[in-house]
Backbone:
């Protein structure tokens, strides 16, 4: 009952009457909104991706894929005969660019060849259309008969509506310069497969697919439904033991394991970055409550004098923190939901560009997430409130009523804090040195958190040191500098958490900027070293993502007739199952690449390594792959081919910054020998010295571009496009950091407002001895300025160390990349300008308020 | 020096406005030591605040050295407080983070005096009030009497024409309070300073030239002593 009365008559009145609590509330809400918006976006994208995967998987319990590519169809019979397998469904598929209708140009379509008689039990198909057939036949049978027509295709309703296609219309796909024309025979509705890939799927008969896609006698995948009474693992193990040299039998979920890992890392990084706003919010609440305790010490004394005990005082302030957290959390979720609409869009686009094409993710705010957001606010606030509440509880009534707030013991306490700071720093270092595990870098995130804590604990000592310095320097300066320095030092307890929060936000921004600049510098170097061709030619759909389109046959030979061309390096890639995981295998003309370009190898001479790879049948692997499978130079790997596993020695490990999970590069002659694959995905064209690249490129476009749907891009343009994607990837990151800065700004404003309140009398005295309003403003702004400087100086150092963690620990574990560290000198100036601007903006309103202090009220003591 | 012509001060309130001063008219001669006496709430502090420009009258007119302050802006009062009007209060006169010397130098620095000259003046002022040995001490290290002496030195440092003191001895023991009164009186005598002091202390009467007795926000009567 007492607690309820205290809440009603004391806490709530304080909370809602004091306007500066609103600043705290907004800060907490913003901090939580960032975290929530990222959670919503991550969940949304993940759900969309999962639904897409599940729609494909349907009721499949196991799937069969060829180790080296497509499988011989005769293997199907083996699975049909197996007693543990109840159903089989063979599939032939390819992703091809759409040539018609015009509205669909630039998109790709997954063409799926199915055996409808077998496929129907695996996935949901709801056909509708104008079928020919006798009365009484089911729609499924009617569909089946229509599907047998080699010109027929079934399209999802959502795709047809988007492109205004009806039954009977034509859909054209492009394959190696030729058009594959289909007639829309029917439409797919309902959920399931029709919803996958945002509807960019075409269903044809499997025999048609084999013929039209030139995959006669081959299958891309066989889906299986197994006997439920037999454990899946047992079936999988047995089948892999008997057939494992040709094919891999796996759960459908394992198909996308690599993508899911990278997606997870990407989302985890975003979540961690969004947590910085919570960190800043935590300090904001802590500071607000601590100041409140100091401010209300007489009230606490009175309460104790009338019978309220320590525990009740502790609960009083803890509950106040809780209320701020709950209300802030609620507001934060609402703001986060608004923010999420933009974040979901950007995130979907980024994931589609970098990892796997996914349809636009819809926005949704599940109740669980709503509750989670509010709970986070409550937890963070309650945690922040513990120390201030404890301080309040230990106040002696007499001291409190006299306005004494315990003994200062400033010097001793700061030494303790420095000790804790050193400990946190040491722990951070130890964690950062732990061996890396591929994927989630828990030690990296923990190290980053401890590092932030270490520098935060240094702030009180830094304030004292800075104050002494300013005192010395301001002897001959205007009095506002000296007065501001005095205020800063006088209120260390209040100012330190504010500066810590500001420092934290700024340090994260500094570290992220260093990381991005290092990344950018590395990528630019990588492109300059490894993409030295003058012009690149590839099918227009190549940049869309997972298109199977290749360059027209004979294009290379045709182009070599052009006198300006010195050489063309043909680049071909396919996915193989390396150690049961999907890995990109690249075949290219390595001798041309060695002559005209290079790879950035982590050791050894690039030209020698590449030439050796040609001569000695060696493979070159990317660093990401090496980390993923713990491979080194000179290791021997077995690459699955249609003619069996072939051993390749690893000739070199090169740095690569694609988001493909790692690649193996071999000479294209092996593609021809083992896969009978003469196709080329990308042609890297080297022109003779002195040739006008732009003119030649334009000529190519005229000759081949429009006709065959090819893209010719110069190295400069290609580099720019990659950097554009690069910049877009970090858009959200920058936004997150800015919001954290805004939260810190609110913290500074809050602290200064409180400072004005507490120094009302001082301000009155100042004005009474001749200080003008503008001088009072300058004093407050000078104090804000000092906060900005101190925060900035510490943030630069902290940010530097944080960036080392980001680059060499977290990124390395998450994505497998080695980045060249680059410290952009301009960050020193930029961070200084940012810190000062933010601090002065934060100080402006409090300064104005101080200048308007009612003098008679300020000096009244009766 | 100071004259008030039917000056009133009413603090607004939705239902019960408070009249702190009711049509007060008086003259404070130049160089005089005038006391304001009366019970708590009679308007002494309000009167001092109005004369010092810390508050503004609801009606009436205040003249400072013959000049009407009716249309004075805040900046005009600020200018006066920088060079013509010094103020001392009962509590918390000094800025806690500045040393005694710095507290005295502050008003001089605020009005733009050169730093070296300022420091020199501050040192001299401290010597004059007998606190040379407390130059670098913070207020927390000073006794109540010492703090008031520093406050007097600070007010004196700008060489004001008028010194307003609101209960300067209210927080001191009788002996210390007596010392402070002596110090204030000596400033008036030596430099021709006009001193207007609000006080409950009858001991101050022996130093004063006149006492303005106030009651219920009005002047009850003026007692000429010298």
Residues:
């Amino acid at each position: 009952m007492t607690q309820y009365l205290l809440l009603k008559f004391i806490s709530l009145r304080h909370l809602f009457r004091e306007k500066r609590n609103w600043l705290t509330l907004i800060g907490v809400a913003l901090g939580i909104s960032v975290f929530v918006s990222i959670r919503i976006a991550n969940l949304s994208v993940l759900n969309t991706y999962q639904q897409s995967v599940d729609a494909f998987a349907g009721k499949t319990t196991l799937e069969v894929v060829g180790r080296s590519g497509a499988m011989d169809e005769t293997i199907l019979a083996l699975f049909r005969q197996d007693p543990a397998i109840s159903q089989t469904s063979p599939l032939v598929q390819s992703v091809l660019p759409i040539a018609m209708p015009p509205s669909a140009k630039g998109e790709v379509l997954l063409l799926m060849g199915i055996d409808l008689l077998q496929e129907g039990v695996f996935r949901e198909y709801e056909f509708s259309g104008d079928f020919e057939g006798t009365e009484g036949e089911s729609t499924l049978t009617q569909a089946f008969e229509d599907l047998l027509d080699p010109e027929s295709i079934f399209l999802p309703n959502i795709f047809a509506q988007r492109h205004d296609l009806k039954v009977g219309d034509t859909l054209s796909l492009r394959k190696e310069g030729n058009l594959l024309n289909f007639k829309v025979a029917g439409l797919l509705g309902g959920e399931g497969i029709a919803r996958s890939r945002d509807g960019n799927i075409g269903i044809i008969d499997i025999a048609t697919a084999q013929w039209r896609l030139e995959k006669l006698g081959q299958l891309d995948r066989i889906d299986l439904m197994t006997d439920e009474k037999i454990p899946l693992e047992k079936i999988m193990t047995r089948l892999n033991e008997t057939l494992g040299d040709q094919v891999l039998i796996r759960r459908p979920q394992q198909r996308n394991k690599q993508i899911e890992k990278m997606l997870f890392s990407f989302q985890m990084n975003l979540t961690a970055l969004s947590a910085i706003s919570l960190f800043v919010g935590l300090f904001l609440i802590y500071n607000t409550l601590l100041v409140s305790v100091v401010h209300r010490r007489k009230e606490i004394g009175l309460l104790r004098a009338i019978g309220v005990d320590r525990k009740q005082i502790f609960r009083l302030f803890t509950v106040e923190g809780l209320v701020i957290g709950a209300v802030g959390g609620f507001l934060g979720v609402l703001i986060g939901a608004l923010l999420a609409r933009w974040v979901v869009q950007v995130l979907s686009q980024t994931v589609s560009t970098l990892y796997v094409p996914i349809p636009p993710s819809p926005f949704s705010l599940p109740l669980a997430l709503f509750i989670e957001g509010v709970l986070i606010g409550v937890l963070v606030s309650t945690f922040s409130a513990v120390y201030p509440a404890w301080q309040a509880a230990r106040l002696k009534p007499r001291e409190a009523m006299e306005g004494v707030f315990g003994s200062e013991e400033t010097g001793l306490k700061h030494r303790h804090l420095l000790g804790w700071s050193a400990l946190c720093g040491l722990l951070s270092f130890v964690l950062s040195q732990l061996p890396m595990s591929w994927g989630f870098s828990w030690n990296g995130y923990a190290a980053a958190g401890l590092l932030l804590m270490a520098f935060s604990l240094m702030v009180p000592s830094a304030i004292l040191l800075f104050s002494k310095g300013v005192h010395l320097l301001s002897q001959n300066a205007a009095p506002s500098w000296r007065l501001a320095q005095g205020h800063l030092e006088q209120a260390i307890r209040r100012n330190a958490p504010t500066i810590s929060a500001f420092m934290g936000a700024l340090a994260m921004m500094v570290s992220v900027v260093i990381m991005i600049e290092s990344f950018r510098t590395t990528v630019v170097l990588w492109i300059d070293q490894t993409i030295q061709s003058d012009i690149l030619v590839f099918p227009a759909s190549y940049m869309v993502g997972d298109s199977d389109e290749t360059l027209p046959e004979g294009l290379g030979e045709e182009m070599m007739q052009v006198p300006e061309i010195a050489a063309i390096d043909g680049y071909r890639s396919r996915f193989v199952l390396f150690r049961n995981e999907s890995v990109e295998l690249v075949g290219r003309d390595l001798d041309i690449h060695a002559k005209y370009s290079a790879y950035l190898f982590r050791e050894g001479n690039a030209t020698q390594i590449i030439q050796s790879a040609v001569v000695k049948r060696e493979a070159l692997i990317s660093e990401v792959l090496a980390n993923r499978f713990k491979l080194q130079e000179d290791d021997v790997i077995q690459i699955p081919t249609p003619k069996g596993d072939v051993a390749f020695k690893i000739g070199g490990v090169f740095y690569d910054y694609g988001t493909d999970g790692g690649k193996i590069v071999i000479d294209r002659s092996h593609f021809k020998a083992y896969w009978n694959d003469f196709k080329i995905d990308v042609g890297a064209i080297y022109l003779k010295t002195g040739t006008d690249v732009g003119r030649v490129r334009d000529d190519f476009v005229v000759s081949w571009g429009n006709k065959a749907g090819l893209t010719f891009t110069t190295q400069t343009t290609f580099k720019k496009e990659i950097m554009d994607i690069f910049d877009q990837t970090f858009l959200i990151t920058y936004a997150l950091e800015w919001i954290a800065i805004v939260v810190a700004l609110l913290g500074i404003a809050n602290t200064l407002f409180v400072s004005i309140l507490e120094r009302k009398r001082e301000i009155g005295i100042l004005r009474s001895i001749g200080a003008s309003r503008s001088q009072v403003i300058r004093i407050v702004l000078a104090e804000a300025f000092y906060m900005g400087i101190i925060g900035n100086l510490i943030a630069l150092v902290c940010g530097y160390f944080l960036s080392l963690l980001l680059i060499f620990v977290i990124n390395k574990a998450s994505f497998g990349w080695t980045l060249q560290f680059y410290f952009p000198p301009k960050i020193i100036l930029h961070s200084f300008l940012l810190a000062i601007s933010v601090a002065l903006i934060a100080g402006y309103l409090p300064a104005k308020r101080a200048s308007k202090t009612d003098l008679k009220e300020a000096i009244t003591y009766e | 020096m100071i004259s008030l012509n039917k000056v009133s001060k009413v603090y607004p309130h939705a239902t019960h406005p408070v009249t702190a001063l009711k049509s007060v008219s008086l003259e404070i001669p130049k160089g005089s030591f005038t006391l304001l006496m009366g019970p708590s709430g009679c308007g002494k502090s309000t009167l001092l605040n109005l004369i010092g420009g810390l508050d503004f009258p609801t009606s009436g007119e205040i003249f400072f050295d013959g000049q009407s302050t009716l249309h004075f802006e805040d900046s005009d009062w600020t200018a006066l407080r920088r060079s013509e009007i010094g103020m001392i209060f009962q509590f918390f006169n000094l800025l806690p983070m500045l040393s005694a010397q710095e507290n005295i130098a502050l008003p001089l620095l605020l009005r733009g005096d050169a730093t070296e000259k300022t420091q020199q003046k501050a040192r001299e002022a401290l010597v004059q009030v007998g606190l040379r040995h407390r130059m670098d001490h913070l207020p927390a290290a000073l006794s109540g009497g010492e703090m008031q002496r520093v406050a007097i030195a600070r007010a004196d440092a700008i060489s004001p024409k008028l010194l307003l003191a609101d209960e300067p001895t209210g927080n001191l023991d009788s002996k210390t309070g007596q010392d402070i009164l002596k110090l204030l009186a000596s400033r008036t005598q030596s430099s021709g300073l006009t001193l207007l002091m609000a006080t409950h202390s009858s001991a101050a009467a022996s130093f004063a030239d006149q006492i303005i007795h106030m009651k219920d926000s009005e002047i009850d009567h003026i007692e000429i002593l010298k």
About this structure: The radius of gyration of chain A is 33 Å. Residues 295 and 758 of chain A are 8 Å apart (CA to CA).
